[in-house]
Amino acid sequence: MPRNGVRTDSLDLTGDNEVGALLEERLVLKLRIREDKARLKAIDETLTLKLGEAQVGLLPGWEIWRVVAERRAYTVPEGIWRYLRVKQTTHNRT
């Protein structure tokens, strides 16, 4: 019987060349995103230090805002969903 109505069997995609190419492209994109996020974080940290306690920084053509934000508490409703997990196995690494 499927768990939560979802089949749990596996599908052999060995002969599907498109999936292999997509996974290689996905890996390159994920690495690029990781690098870009790290650089973005470093830039944001520098801007935060430059602003100090000021809420707004002005530069010709730019405004930098760092204001206090508040959020009300809320409860996340229970749910069931499927997510995609991709893992490169050691015998396939190039």
Present the secondary structure layout.
Blueprint: H1 17-51, E1 56-59, E2 62-65
Antiparallel strand pairs: 1-2
In a few lines, what is going on in this structure?
It contains 1 helix and 2 strands; from the N terminus they run H-E-E. The protein is mainly alpha-helical.
Query: Considering DSSP H and I runs of 4 or more, what fraction of the residues is helical?
Result: 25-40%
Unreliably modeled segments: none
Count of DSSP strands: 2
Secondary-structure element order, N to C: HEE
Report on this model:
It is flat and about 55 Å long. The chain is mainly alpha-helical and 94 residues long. It has one domain (17-88). 37% of the residues lie in helices and 9% in strands. The protein starts with 16 loop residues before the first helix and ends in a 29-residue tail after the last strand. The chain has a two-stranded antiparallel sheet. A hairpin with a 2-residue loop joins strand 1 (56-59) and strand 2 (62-65). It has one helix spanning 17-51; strands spanning 56-59, 62-65. The longest helix has 35 residues, at 17-51.
Main attributes?
94 residues, 2 strands, 1 helix, mainly alpha, two-stranded antiparallel ribbon
